[in-house]
Predict the structure.
Amino acid sequence: MSALRSLKILELAEGVAGEYCGKLLSDFGADVIKIEKPGEGSPTRRLGPFGPRGDAPETSGLFAYLNTNKSSVELDVTSKAGAAALLKLLPHVDAVIDDHPPGWLREIGLNPEKLEDKYPGLIVCSITAYGQDAPEDSQHAEDINVMHASGWGFHTPSGADNARAPLNGPGRFLPSYEGGLEGALCVAASLYEKLESKRGRFIEVSKQAALTSRCDYVVGQMIAGDMDVSQDRRAFDLFGPAGIFHTRDGFVYIFMSAPAHWQGLRQLLGDPEWMQAFPEDWLEKQCTPQRVALVREMLAGWLKDKAKDDVAEAAQKLGVTLVAVNTAKDMLASTQFTFREFFASIAHPVMGEARYPTVPYKMSATPAKLERPAPLLGQHTDGVLAAREP
Amino acid sequence: MTKASRGGPLQGVRVVEITKVWAGPYAGKLLGYLGAEAIRVESMGSLDVTRTYGVEDINNAPGFMAVNPQKLSVQIDMKTEKGLALLLDLIRQADIVIENLRPGAMERLGLGYEQVKQAKSDIIYVSMSMFGNRGPLAYQTGYAPCFAALGGLSALVGYEGEPPTGMNIRYADSTFGALSAYAAVVALLHRRRTGEGQHIDVSAVECMTSMIGDAVMDFMLNGVERLCDGNRHAEMSPHGIYPCQGGDWISIAAANDESWRALAEEMGQGALARDERFATLTARKANEDELDRLVAGWSATRNAEALSKALQKRGVAAGKSQNSIDLIADQRLWSRGLFQDVDDGQGGSRPVIGPSWRMSRGASLERGAPRLGEHNAYIFGEVLGLSEAAQRELADAGAIR
């Protein structure tokens, strides 16, 4: 039995943040009912990647990934009838997840300040770009804006070239995934407490705050005055020869900071003369730009005709933290991902069968499980709404 | 200082951390911020590197203080037999154990899940490692940027048509910690309903892949291996980071035609929005290099903050790309308590990173990170009920301080 079975969650969210939050709960067996606009459904249904049949309805890979194990109910909660139906549903659910802009919950009758009086047992979680109290000049945001408000954007990539624009980080939605994760953590903790207290709670997550807090090791030192702040694009960086290098079949990443790494690397490269000329503790104590440049140049030359997985294996056995820079294809072929059964096959009625990423935690008693594909639009409307009629 | 005093949904939950550096401590921190009592087990013989890195005073180490506010610290030497027994006694009084040592290290210490389960049958035991505790590559180790490389993130970050650069080198540990904390809370809930504890084995690499699930789906559905695309977005244009005065940058995203028209108006070039090269998303994507040049040429002479305000007024998603000065001055973060002052335990106050969330009946955040062994008396005396004589005996044996 999965851990969250029989808990009922209403998902009003229409973005990646709220849908990922719902997914984290539904993959543990929570009964997540997704409320969607009649006829059109969640906007994520119209975002790629699309399956081989193009962008016909019910072919969004984004929606399919974010909505496994959920039910779909078509209901316009902004209409009078829809709002009434929503109010009827609320007493039957444990939690509500939303990711509309600030103020939207109030508009549909879920005023955060009055929640406790009206629905004392209801957990409501709002995930927004800058929080419910975002100032006037922060009302409009896509994930790229949040990424660059958080500190991560300006400081990516490491070792930045000031003449070129900072980068947006991996994929389109990192701030939304992080915000959704933070929301799910708070909702799960609140559900845990509610089992005994029977009390609900209003939770509001700021995607910007969630992302910035992910750099607490650095930013925490900065706000305390222990680390310098500046306009420097490299202010978050660590120094040394770490980086990405070409191999004949892709790229590898190497990290080095300790004498043991250097010892391992000398063995890996056969201890050529140029390495013998380096002081043992140069990484920690004598890490000059000249030495870094030389190591990078020699490493690049040595790695370029190697195969990434082979060289990673040899390096790891010598204590060198060198790994392959994996693509999706590499991960699917990885013996470790396979051993942990990270990818699971799911048959979708329109998109067919495909392998999906699952969850990063193996749980001995309550494994998360992708049991059902994402719902078709309105697939569960009749069942869910009828079940609530007196 | 008792475990029921700060409120929050996890009030009354006790977490024992056998963690190092960042990812494990971050997981403990989140549980603490939700109200749990998080205890770091430490000893002089195996100090966390963040207590010693670049500083003399292990009780005022900036890195350690940044990640461990509100925690308790107890000194127990796990390498002595008596210390180990004492630690198991502490675990008997706990709900969650978090460890992020190398796979196999806890077993060798006599603290593996099966061993701990003997002492406390319903314990929730969280193992955090790069690739998971078992499997053909479980022996491999690495640091945060290695997780990002193996998990598929690094390959997606870079300038268009160039080799990947990867995300900033600091990314990965905390996200790994957050997913671990989430799984631990789900296990707590299960235990409250059934009485059953469990082992949770978290892979840092898979945590990374979870953050790009939709990009991975592209390969699963179409066999397409994504390449670096700079700051591009398939469904928005313009979408990028553009130069401003004084070395600053601004992020701008036009989510639809209306937003693009508003941007063109602000540029003083309303006609551009009707230009057939840019009138629709399809056209803008086809002419994106030219479009980006036009936007960048216009933004380069503007002030980033003023420009962001002007665009926001027109309903366009925009914001300054914040450097570290901007970040620590950001009122959006101070006003919601992400940055807040707490008691530094030395008669003063100190700013720390608080929780990213706000919640009704949340846990209070009261103090900074603990000095080494600061809570020995509380843990040994109140939690474990050891007499002073018993404590002295253990100290003489080297098991505690």
Observations:
- The mean pLDDT of chain B is 96.
- Chain B has two domains: 14-210+336-396, 239-323.
- The CA atoms of residues 103 and 133 of chain B lie 5 Å apart.
- The longest strand of chain B covers residues 37-42.
